[in-house]
Design brief:
The protein is mainly β. Helix content is about 10%, strand content about 60%.
Length: about 210
Amino acid sequence: MKKLTFIIALIATTLSGYSQNNNNVDAPAPIEQSKFSIGFKGGYGHSTIMPFTHATFCPSWDAGIAAVYAPAVHWGVEVDALYSEEGVNYKYRNSGDEAYHTKQIYLDYIRVPVKAVYFFRAYDKDFRPKIAVGPSMGFLVNEVGSRGAASFDLGATGLVGFNYRIAKAVWINVDAVYYQGFLDTYDNKSSNELNSNMRLDAGINVGF
């Protein structure tokens, strides 16, 4: 009986000590927010020039650098510098022709979108949806298939996407992006023709 009592007391003492040690373990430190991050991004999609009739799918892509400054948990500003290939593919028919012809116009810009970004969920969450909107400036660097495109373009960009953390302060970004131009694409035409495109962008940013 004494041996049984001693064994029970020993087990109780051991379990008590184990419980106290576990209660003294510090909680993991919160993830420190990176207020600034920079990285690379690229995307692919469709572009057009409105209101071209009989427009068809026109491959469009962009690639460049993305920088984000987020002083608050949910709010930030993103500035990109992108090489953007835009334009339009469309069908037309000359007077007297029965068949349609295909015309391709490519306009290449250096694009600088500046967007206000709202991040959903707290910073310690790996998956963070986001929305963003802001102006986008375009500087024409190449024109193929047309003449007289304006050297400067201005419009608005909006996106819906998410950031996913794969390591400390390293994020994968995926965005569905829409751009709508506000300025006439061609200076030498009386009608207003506006750039427009939609893409799926992806990239990676590293925070500091």
